[in-house]
Amino acid sequence: LHLLQPSRALLSSPKRSSSSSPHWRRPPCCRMSSDSNPSSSLSHTLTLPVQPSEPVHVFAAPGVSDSQFRSAIESSLFKQWLKNLQSETGILASGAATLKRVLIQGVDMFGSRIGFLKFKADIFDKETGKKVPGIVFARGPAVAVLILLDSDGLTFAVLTEQARVPVGRFVLELPAGMLDDDKGDFVGTAVREVEEETGIQLNLEDMVDLTAFLDPSTGCRVIPSPGGCDEEIGIFLFRGNVDPEIIKQLQGKETGLREHGELIKVRAVPYENLWRTTGDAKVLMAIGLYEMAKREGLLPMKSQPASSARW
Question: Which of 111, 163, 229, 282 has the smallest CB count inside 10 Å?
Answer without folding.
Answer: 111
